[in-house]
Amino acid sequence: MAFLELSEQEIIRRKALEELEKLGINPYPAEKYNVTHYSDQIKNEFDEEKGNLQDVTIAGRLMSRRIMGKASFAELQDEKGRIQLYFNRDELCPGEDKAFYNTVFKKLTDIGDIIGVKGKVFKTQMGEISVNVSELTILSKSLRPLPVVKEKDGKTYDAFTDPDQRYRQRYLDLIVNAPVRDTFKKRARLVQTMRNFLNDKEYLEVETPILQPIYGGAAARPFKTHHNKLDMTLYLRIANELYLKKLIVGGYDGVYEFAKDFRNEGMSRFHNPEFTQMELYVAYKDYKWMMELVEEMVEKIAIDLHGTTKVQVGENEIDFKRPWKRFTMFEAIEHFTGIDISQMDEKQLAETAKKLNVEIDDSMGKGKLIDEIFGETCEAKLIQPTFITDYPVEMSPLAKKHRSVQGLVERFEGIVNGKEICNAYSELNDPVDQRQRFEEQLLLAKRGDDEAMMLDEDFLKAIEYGMPPTAGLGIGIDRLAMIMTNSNSIQDVLFFPQMKPEKKMQIDPASMYLELGIPEEWVPVVQKAGFPTVAELKEANPNKLHQQLCGMNKKHKMGLQNPKPEEVKAWIEA
RNA sequence: GACUCAAUAGCUCAGCUGGUAGAGCACAUCCCUUUUAAGGAUGGGGUCCUGGGUUCGAGCCCCAGUUGAGUCACCA
User: Fold this and answer.
1) ipTM of the complex
2) pTM (predicted TM-score)
């Protein structure tokens, strides 16, 4: 009953599929197809004077067709780009029988089909390098029409832009919007550069559990799940910090992991429930050393991706050239507000926050207040890469106390384009202090902070055996990818960002209709008539339904035998 | 979670004060020179997001819902 749910264009394509099969052409052949060239290679290597590339085979998706009698032009898109194809009837069909050109190519091939062509490269009168096709193979017939996007001089016509469709059907976005493919290549390159950089330093890439009995290492709400056999609650990790530090205890001097983390929080253009973070821990180092590593690594990524340290992000040109600006948190606040809060107590901080229109509540301790003031007054103004150092101890239960300033820890965040991209500490390796900090977190939790950390005995046990002084880093790969690809939303650097499921119309299976005595061929017609469920059918007016069904039979020329009115009545009353 | 905006043909979008649903591309038919957003002519295609309401009459007005986007909140 295809015509009831398919669009006209889909029906036409299905018919073309049948026609191909009738002609003995398999629209989905099993054999491998020997591709010799990519589109970009042909465009780069072809030399009219040399007359090279006289026998090439390429494969890809047909993106446009211009048919003019016995000559046609088409565009083929492969992974590397697009190239024009030229089809000439008499060259494609040298003999008497021109059916292959007239029928198979002209009628049964559509935009979106995956095809392979063999031919010789030449330059058209318009000067475009093209392949003169002598052999055409259909490799996969496309049954749905593709959005058609056209381009001229960098101007795009009828762009495929609906974000809902682009994210839910990312493959379409990738087929039709070339810059999207490039964004994800850049993201892959970014990860590769980072990995090479760390491997060159002989740090060990490791994997640690995603399902964790106690979540920790960050301030966030987790996803909760359940293991049936063990009958226990498990959490999807919010960070992998504590496991990586256990590996430092175990004697590796440098470990890192590209980790998918999961946080059960709101979504926005900067937040997806699952996101990727690279965490790195290096023994015998401190946070100052780590700052230099971050600068060097990110600068290298910028150069690798763009050939320069300067990257255009929205309206800002960001320069990742070392060294980056450095501010302590108190300096930054003083710089942007003119207020020195370094000596204030909790009460004074709360008053200052109010004065600066920073929203606060009673659950906030001294550290949280300072953090809020910073977040409100400074963060968005830090466009060029900047390190903010020396955070209040209350906000950083896993960081080592500052070597010279009371009440602070040795911590820094890297801020670029007004957003945090990384977070690092001199790791706390004093087990007595660590236990105390966890206990303070418990107090915060009692005060109402639902992101306070849980006390992790297992982790404490590990560092009680002794962990070397260690520098640790977490760097947000998605955020960094956004900056490096000039993407406005995290959804643009994730292939499949989290989306709400589309609400599907409920449809009862055909068997339920058959039980009512409805002939099989009429079931989809009844459903299409506005009764997708048996329950709804039970409410129908039999006379009206009967007329509706006969009407549809006529309109769609289905050629079915109309049911009698009493039969329709019997279905409804069955 | 709050507020604002959006949803119409396969795609991009018009649609006046409430009165017979439109364009470009895509698709089909016919003709046709190596064309460049690209040949020409003709034609078909709609659950106007869903469900209610107001009205003689709703794509348009009102209410509720679905999905998306933006801003804010939480957060990396």
Assistant:
1) 0.87
2) 0.88
